[in-house]
TrEMBL record:
SUPFAM superfamilies: N-terminal nucleophile aminohydrolases (Ntn hydrolases). It comes from the Bacteria. CDD domains: Asparaginase_2 (cd04701). Coiled coil: none annotated. This is Isoaspartyl peptidase/L-asparaginase. Signal peptide: none annotated. InterPro entries: Ntn_hydrolases_N, Peptidase_T2.
Length: 317
Protein backbone atom coordinates (compact mmCIF):
# COMPACT_ATOMS: atom_id res chain seq x y z
CA UNK A 1 0.00 0.00 0.00
CA UNK A 2 1.28 3.47 -0.89
CA UNK A 3 0.31 6.99 0.04
CA UNK A 4 -2.79 9.00 -0.75
CA UNK A 5 -3.49 12.57 -1.84
CA UNK A 6 -6.74 14.49 -2.22
CA UNK A 7 -7.67 18.03 -3.25
CA UNK A 8 -11.04 19.78 -3.46
CA UNK A 9 -12.46 23.07 -4.71
CA UNK A 10 -15.65 25.02 -4.20
CA UNK A 11 -15.26 27.51 -7.01
CA UNK A 12 -12.89 30.26 -8.15
CA UNK A 13 -13.39 33.93 -8.88
CA UNK A 14 -13.36 37.39 -7.33
CA UNK A 15 -12.93 36.19 -3.77
CA UNK A 16 -11.15 38.69 -1.52
CA UNK A 17 -11.20 39.45 2.22
CA UNK A 18 -13.17 42.62 1.47
CA UNK A 19 -15.96 40.57 -0.15
CA UNK A 20 -16.25 38.24 2.83
CA UNK A 21 -17.53 38.65 6.38
CA UNK A 22 -15.58 36.83 9.11
CA UNK A 23 -18.60 34.69 9.93
CA UNK A 24 -19.09 33.67 6.31
CA UNK A 25 -15.41 32.86 5.92
CA UNK A 26 -15.66 30.53 8.90
CA UNK A 27 -18.65 28.77 7.31
CA UNK A 28 -16.82 28.23 4.03
CA UNK A 29 -13.71 26.89 5.72
CA UNK A 30 -15.76 24.59 7.92
CA UNK A 31 -17.54 23.20 4.85
CA UNK A 32 -14.22 22.62 3.09
CA UNK A 33 -12.83 20.92 6.22
CA UNK A 34 -15.82 18.59 6.39
CA UNK A 35 -15.49 17.65 2.74
CA UNK A 36 -11.74 17.02 2.78
CA UNK A 37 -12.12 14.99 5.98
CA UNK A 38 -14.76 12.79 4.33
CA UNK A 39 -12.52 11.95 1.40
CA UNK A 40 -9.36 11.57 3.47
CA UNK A 41 -11.00 9.04 5.79
CA UNK A 42 -11.98 6.88 2.84
CA UNK A 43 -8.48 7.00 1.39
CA UNK A 44 -6.69 6.50 4.73
CA UNK A 45 -8.69 3.31 5.30
CA UNK A 46 -7.58 1.93 1.94
CA UNK A 47 -10.68 3.00 0.03
CA UNK A 48 -10.88 3.73 -3.67
CA UNK A 49 -10.16 7.12 -5.19
CA UNK A 50 -13.43 6.88 -7.11
CA UNK A 51 -15.41 6.50 -3.88
CA UNK A 52 -13.44 9.29 -2.22
CA UNK A 53 -14.13 11.88 -4.90
CA UNK A 54 -17.81 10.96 -5.13
CA UNK A 55 -18.45 11.14 -1.39
CA UNK A 56 -16.41 14.33 -1.04
CA UNK A 57 -18.37 16.07 -3.78
CA UNK A 58 -21.63 14.90 -2.20
CA UNK A 59 -20.67 16.75 0.99
CA UNK A 60 -20.15 19.93 -1.05
CA UNK A 61 -23.41 19.37 -2.95
CA UNK A 62 -25.28 19.13 0.35
CA UNK A 63 -24.43 22.66 1.49
CA UNK A 64 -26.08 25.78 0.04
CA UNK A 65 -22.76 27.62 0.22
CA UNK A 66 -21.63 26.29 -3.17
CA UNK A 67 -23.22 26.33 -6.60
CA UNK A 68 -23.93 22.60 -6.89
CA UNK A 69 -26.69 20.34 -5.64
CA UNK A 70 -28.59 22.12 -2.86
CA UNK A 71 -26.90 25.47 -3.60
CA UNK A 72 -27.51 25.47 -7.35
CA UNK A 73 -28.40 28.79 -8.96
CA UNK A 74 -31.68 29.58 -10.76
CA UNK A 75 -32.07 29.22 -14.52
CA UNK A 76 -33.99 31.60 -16.81
CA UNK A 77 -37.16 29.64 -15.99
CA UNK A 78 -36.62 29.69 -12.24
CA UNK A 79 -35.45 26.09 -12.04
CA UNK A 80 -32.26 24.36 -10.92
CA UNK A 81 -30.53 22.66 -13.83
CA UNK A 82 -27.46 20.67 -12.78
CA UNK A 83 -24.45 19.00 -14.38
CA UNK A 84 -21.88 16.53 -13.00
CA UNK A 85 -19.16 14.13 -14.08
CA UNK A 86 -16.87 11.51 -12.57
CA UNK A 87 -13.93 9.59 -14.08
CA UNK A 88 -11.76 6.63 -13.09
CA UNK A 89 -8.07 6.98 -13.94
CA UNK A 90 -7.44 3.21 -13.87
CA UNK A 91 -10.01 2.18 -16.45
CA UNK A 92 -10.76 5.53 -18.14
CA UNK A 93 -14.43 4.82 -17.49
CA UNK A 94 -16.49 7.94 -17.01
CA UNK A 95 -20.04 8.99 -16.25
CA UNK A 96 -21.64 12.39 -16.83
CA UNK A 97 -25.06 13.99 -16.61
CA UNK A 98 -26.21 17.37 -17.89
CA UNK A 99 -29.35 19.46 -17.49
CA UNK A 100 -30.96 17.37 -14.76
CA UNK A 101 -33.58 18.63 -12.30
CA UNK A 102 -34.42 17.53 -8.77
CA UNK A 103 -31.50 15.11 -8.40
CA UNK A 104 -30.28 15.59 -4.82
CA UNK A 105 -26.69 14.60 -5.63
CA UNK A 106 -25.91 14.82 -9.35
CA UNK A 107 -22.46 13.28 -8.83
CA UNK A 108 -24.14 10.09 -7.58
CA UNK A 109 -26.06 9.93 -10.87
CA UNK A 110 -22.79 10.36 -12.78
CA UNK A 111 -21.33 7.44 -10.80
CA UNK A 112 -24.33 5.25 -11.66
CA UNK A 113 -23.88 6.09 -15.34
CA UNK A 114 -20.23 5.04 -15.08
CA UNK A 115 -21.01 1.81 -13.24
CA UNK A 116 -24.31 0.64 -14.67
CA UNK A 117 -24.73 1.87 -18.24
CA UNK A 118 -23.03 1.41 -21.57
CA UNK A 119 -22.88 5.18 -22.02
CA UNK A 120 -20.72 8.03 -20.77
CA UNK A 121 -22.98 11.07 -21.10
CA UNK A 122 -26.72 11.42 -20.46
CA UNK A 123 -28.87 14.54 -20.33
CA UNK A 124 -32.27 15.91 -19.38
CA UNK A 125 -35.29 13.67 -19.02
CA UNK A 126 -33.43 10.58 -20.21
CA UNK A 127 -30.83 10.98 -17.48
CA UNK A 128 -33.62 11.42 -14.94
CA UNK A 129 -35.39 8.26 -16.18
CA UNK A 130 -32.12 6.39 -15.73
CA UNK A 131 -31.76 7.90 -12.24
CA UNK A 132 -35.19 6.55 -11.25
CA UNK A 133 -34.29 3.12 -12.57
CA UNK A 134 -31.15 3.16 -10.44
CA UNK A 135 -33.02 4.45 -7.37
CA UNK A 136 -31.07 7.71 -7.24
CA UNK A 137 -32.50 10.08 -4.62
CA UNK A 138 -34.66 12.96 -5.87
CA UNK A 139 -35.50 16.07 -3.83
CA UNK A 140 -38.49 18.44 -4.01
CA UNK A 141 -38.01 21.84 -5.63
CA UNK A 142 -38.06 23.66 -2.30
CA UNK A 143 -34.99 21.66 -1.19
CA UNK A 144 -32.95 23.68 -3.71
CA UNK A 145 -34.46 27.05 -2.81
CA UNK A 146 -32.06 29.59 -1.30
CA UNK A 147 -33.11 33.19 -0.68
CA UNK A 148 -29.77 34.66 -1.70
CA UNK A 149 -29.81 32.69 -4.94
CA UNK A 150 -33.41 33.76 -5.55
CA UNK A 151 -32.65 37.46 -5.06
CA UNK A 152 -29.62 37.09 -7.31
CA UNK A 153 -31.84 35.67 -10.05
CA UNK A 154 -34.58 38.29 -9.57
CA UNK A 155 -32.10 41.00 -10.51
CA UNK A 156 -31.64 39.59 -14.02
CA UNK A 157 -34.55 37.25 -14.76
CA UNK A 158 -36.39 39.77 -16.99
CA UNK A 159 -33.31 40.32 -19.14
CA UNK A 160 -31.12 38.24 -21.41
CA UNK A 161 -28.21 38.65 -19.01
CA UNK A 162 -26.65 35.58 -17.45
CA UNK A 163 -24.39 35.81 -14.42
CA UNK A 164 -21.24 33.90 -13.69
CA UNK A 165 -21.48 32.72 -10.13
CA UNK A 166 -18.14 34.33 -9.30
CA UNK A 167 -18.72 37.91 -10.48
CA UNK A 168 -17.71 40.89 -8.34
CA UNK A 169 -19.91 41.39 -5.31
CA UNK A 170 -21.33 37.88 -5.25
CA UNK A 171 -21.00 36.10 -1.93
CA UNK A 172 -21.25 32.58 -3.28
CA UNK A 173 -18.98 31.06 -5.85
CA UNK A 174 -19.24 28.19 -8.24
CA UNK A 175 -18.63 24.67 -9.17
CA UNK A 176 -17.36 22.01 -6.76
CA UNK A 177 -14.92 19.20 -7.40
CA UNK A 178 -12.49 16.65 -6.00
CA UNK A 179 -9.45 14.75 -7.25
CA UNK A 180 -7.69 11.89 -5.47
CA UNK A 181 -4.92 9.31 -5.57
CA UNK A 182 -5.61 6.21 -3.50
CA UNK A 183 -3.10 3.88 -1.84
CA UNK A 184 -3.35 1.43 -4.73
CA UNK A 185 -2.05 4.13 -7.07
CA UNK A 186 -5.35 4.86 -8.81
CA UNK A 187 -6.58 8.34 -9.69
CA UNK A 188 -10.12 9.74 -9.94
CA UNK A 189 -11.84 13.08 -10.51
CA UNK A 190 -15.37 14.40 -9.99
CA UNK A 191 -17.04 17.77 -10.62
CA UNK A 192 -20.56 19.13 -10.05
CA UNK A 193 -22.28 22.45 -10.79
CA UNK A 194 -25.53 24.36 -11.01
CA UNK A 195 -24.18 26.41 -13.92
CA UNK A 196 -24.90 30.11 -14.47
CA UNK A 197 -27.62 32.26 -12.93
CA UNK A 198 -30.37 32.96 -15.51
CA UNK A 199 -28.84 30.57 -18.03
CA UNK A 200 -31.11 29.83 -20.98
CA UNK A 201 -31.49 27.33 -23.84
CA UNK A 202 -30.30 24.41 -21.65
CA UNK A 203 -26.77 25.82 -21.65
CA UNK A 204 -24.10 23.29 -20.63
CA UNK A 205 -20.62 24.27 -19.44
CA UNK A 206 -17.38 22.37 -19.11
CA UNK A 207 -18.16 20.47 -15.87
CA UNK A 208 -19.79 17.35 -17.37
CA UNK A 209 -17.64 17.29 -20.50
CA UNK A 210 -14.91 14.69 -20.13
CA UNK A 211 -11.58 16.27 -21.02
CA UNK A 212 -12.79 19.84 -20.57
CA UNK A 213 -13.85 20.21 -16.93
CA UNK A 214 -13.14 16.71 -15.63
CA UNK A 215 -10.48 14.12 -16.47
CA UNK A 216 -8.49 11.29 -14.86
CA UNK A 217 -5.79 8.98 -16.22
CA UNK A 218 -3.46 6.86 -14.08
CA UNK A 219 -0.62 7.57 -16.50
CA UNK A 220 -0.76 11.30 -15.84
CA UNK A 221 -3.19 13.08 -13.51
CA UNK A 222 -6.71 13.77 -12.29
CA UNK A 223 -8.24 17.22 -12.90
CA UNK A 224 -11.37 19.10 -11.81
CA UNK A 225 -11.94 22.61 -13.16
CA UNK A 226 -13.91 25.68 -12.10
CA UNK A 227 -14.46 29.01 -13.83
CA UNK A 228 -16.03 30.42 -16.99
CA UNK A 229 -17.00 27.19 -18.69
CA UNK A 230 -17.06 28.44 -22.26
CA UNK A 231 -13.31 29.11 -22.12
CA UNK A 232 -12.54 25.81 -20.43
CA UNK A 233 -14.53 24.00 -23.11
CA UNK A 234 -12.69 25.68 -25.97
CA UNK A 235 -9.32 25.09 -24.35
CA UNK A 236 -10.13 21.45 -23.44
CA UNK A 237 -8.35 22.32 -20.21
CA UNK A 238 -8.34 19.06 -18.26
CA UNK A 239 -7.14 16.87 -21.14
CA UNK A 240 -4.66 19.49 -22.28
CA UNK A 241 -2.86 19.26 -18.95
CA UNK A 242 -2.75 15.48 -19.22
CA UNK A 243 -1.38 15.75 -22.76
CA UNK A 244 1.39 18.14 -21.73
CA UNK A 245 2.48 15.60 -19.14
CA UNK A 246 2.17 12.56 -21.41
CA UNK A 247 3.62 13.92 -24.65
CA UNK A 248 5.94 16.71 -23.52
CA UNK A 249 7.11 15.40 -20.18
CA UNK A 250 5.85 18.37 -18.17
CA UNK A 251 5.51 18.00 -14.42
CA UNK A 252 2.02 18.40 -12.98
CA UNK A 253 2.78 21.91 -11.75
CA UNK A 254 4.36 22.95 -15.06
CA UNK A 255 1.40 21.66 -17.08
CA UNK A 256 -1.16 23.34 -14.82
CA UNK A 257 0.69 26.65 -14.83
CA UNK A 258 1.01 26.58 -18.62
CA UNK A 259 -2.71 26.05 -19.18
CA UNK A 260 -4.23 28.12 -16.36
CA UNK A 261 -1.78 31.00 -16.11
CA UNK A 262 -0.81 31.28 -19.79
CA UNK A 263 -3.18 29.63 -22.27
CA UNK A 264 -6.44 30.60 -20.53
CA UNK A 265 -5.27 34.11 -19.66
CA UNK A 266 -4.29 34.86 -23.27
CA UNK A 267 -7.88 34.53 -24.47
CA UNK A 268 -9.70 35.80 -21.40
CA UNK A 269 -10.53 32.67 -19.46
CA UNK A 270 -10.96 33.10 -15.71
CA UNK A 271 -10.88 30.34 -13.14
CA UNK A 272 -8.75 27.56 -11.77
CA UNK A 273 -8.49 23.86 -11.11
CA UNK A 274 -7.29 21.19 -8.73
CA UNK A 275 -4.99 18.39 -9.83
CA UNK A 276 -3.14 15.38 -8.48
CA UNK A 277 -0.65 13.19 -10.36
CA UNK A 278 0.30 9.52 -10.15
CA UNK A 279 3.04 10.33 -7.60
CA UNK A 280 0.65 12.14 -5.28
CA UNK A 281 1.79 15.66 -6.14
CA UNK A 282 -0.96 18.29 -5.90
CA UNK A 283 -1.45 21.52 -7.85
CA UNK A 284 -4.20 24.09 -7.29
CA UNK A 285 -3.55 27.00 -9.70
CA UNK A 286 -6.04 29.78 -10.44
CA UNK A 287 -5.85 33.08 -12.31
CA UNK A 288 -8.63 34.79 -10.32
CA UNK A 289 -8.55 36.56 -6.96
CA UNK A 290 -9.30 33.43 -5.01
CA UNK A 291 -10.48 29.83 -5.04
CA UNK A 292 -12.16 27.86 -2.29
CA UNK A 293 -9.79 24.94 -1.94
CA UNK A 294 -8.33 22.31 0.36
CA UNK A 295 -5.90 19.43 0.11
CA UNK A 296 -4.39 16.67 2.20
CA UNK A 297 -1.65 14.08 1.83
CA UNK A 298 -0.94 10.92 3.84
CA UNK A 299 0.09 11.53 7.45
CA UNK A 300 -0.24 15.30 7.10
CA UNK A 301 -2.92 17.70 8.30
CA UNK A 302 -5.36 19.22 5.79
CA UNK A 303 -4.70 22.65 4.32
CA UNK A 304 -7.72 24.89 3.68
CA UNK A 305 -7.48 28.22 1.84
CA UNK A 306 -9.60 30.82 0.06
CA UNK A 307 -7.50 33.80 -0.98
CA UNK A 308 -4.67 34.08 -3.47
CA UNK A 309 -1.75 34.39 -1.05
CA UNK A 310 -2.79 31.89 1.61
CA UNK A 311 -0.77 29.06 0.06
CA UNK A 312 2.23 29.93 -2.09
CA UNK A 313 2.70 26.34 -3.22
CA UNK A 314 1.44 22.91 -2.24
CA UNK A 315 5.08 22.03 -1.56
CA UNK A 316 4.58 23.99 1.68
CA UNK A 317 2.69 20.95 2.93
Amino acid sequence: MGKFSIAIHGGAGTITPSSMTPALEVKYKEALHQAIERGSKILASGGKALDAVQKTVEVLENTPLFNAGKGSVFTKHGMHEMDAAIMCGKTLQAGAAAGVYSIKNPVSLAREILEHSDHVFMSGYGAEDFARKQHIEFAPEDYFFDMFRYKQWCEVRDSDIFMLDHTVGDEKFGTVGAVALDMDGNLAAATSTGGMTNKNYNRIGDTPVIGAGTYANNDTCAISCTGHGEYFLRAVVAYDISCLMEYKGYSLQQACEKVVMDKLVRFGGEGGLIAVDALGNIAMPFNSEGMYRACQMSNKPPIVAIYKDEIKAVSEL
